[in-house]
């Protein structure tokens, strides 16, 4: 197979001291400078097939190797560069501050995406998650005039200290920094509980009656509305989110050909390939309550607004959720998009459905489902769920006892006892009359 050289080093492939990448036998390896081994040619096998994606990974490894060569820190045993090995932090410190791999923050940010996707499948959803982490990390170090400095513990401490404890910003900053530093194997010890104390804003979930009123409001058109004529679409979008407990952007991933058919219980199919990835992947979802499918006329999709802006939503999927939130607010609806999803979860339990099934429909693990939604149960919800459980028990007993529940059997027994008492009294009276 013809050897291919890394584009970054094509002009330097013959220069002393420069490593390069080549493909050999369908696999990638780094060709090391001869002077490192007294004139002998050595290679660093990467264990990667010759594919475009793996060339990107190989380029990142080449940067690491070449950096060590340039700083006279190259490990001639090559153990440092093998998969799973831990890169030691450089100990040539200034003011006792540790510097990671002699990279500036600017270089780290440039290399962040490559390293992030070494261990992750690249989809639209994972790309959005990465973009968020990069944005948070960049914002965290904005207290510096530029990013041409080597990252140290002091700077990380300051980035965290500039956020208020117990806030979402602190939690978000710590979370993204953990991911960022792990990609570069930077040894930083986060203080215990540093991201704790944040409590999401308390939610007062809407009742089903309030959701129906909100559905009516969201469809109202105003003469000044910039998207006049889309009220019906917004009504349908809200109805689907409320009836199936979807995240707003998952409306964009509905497989219309398979969904909303009476023969299949009006189930809905989420196909992540439509949007290039969703948070929970493809799945099947069932309507709760069932009657809402017909009440909201969900079986006839009204997607005019979605179709008009689909190209925008495909590239910036978060925009769809933002637009939905804005519509709720401008129409005076005092609950948020995710409140509809939370209400779906509680409604399912009130209707007597098992948490395991609900978690699967909503794209959660059972633990995540329980931890997320149990805190929204009200005393009334607990009472409804308890009574639903009693009804299920009675139904089971009805099946076991020839179609009658325990309470019904007890009532029949009391009737029988009364009848027996009446017959005994009548018999006693007859005996007395006969004796006379």
Could you explain the architecture of this structure?
There is one protein chain. This protein has 436 residues and is mainly α. It has four domains: 1-85, no CATH class; 97-199; 208-390, Intergrase catalytic core (hpI Integrase, Chain A, Orthogonal Bundle); 404-436. 48% of the residues lie in helices and 7% in strands. The chain contains 15 helices and seven strands. The chain is elongated.
Give a brief outline of the structure.
The protein is mainly alpha-helical and 436 residues long. It has 15 helices and 7 strands.
Strands across the major sheet, in which order?
1-2-3
How far apart lie the N and C ends?
Answer: 124 Å
Q: Determine the CATH superfamily of the largest domain.
A: Intergrase catalytic core
- Proportion of strand residues: 5-15%
Which CATH class of the largest domain applies here? Mainly Alpha
- The multimeric state of the shown protein is single chain
Order of helices and strands: EEEHEEHHHHHHEEHHHHHHHH
Count the DSSP helices.
15
Please summarize the sheet with the most strands: 3 strands, antiparallel
Here the CATH topology of the largest domain equals: hpI Integrase, Chain A
Q: Catalogue the unreliable spans.
A: 1-14, 86-101
What's the overall average pLDDT, rounded?
A: 78
Radius of gyration: 33 Å
At CATH level 2, the architecture of the largest domain is: Orthogonal Bundle
Annotation, overall tally of beta strands = 7
Number of structural domains: 4
Helix content: 40-55%
* Shape verdict: elongated
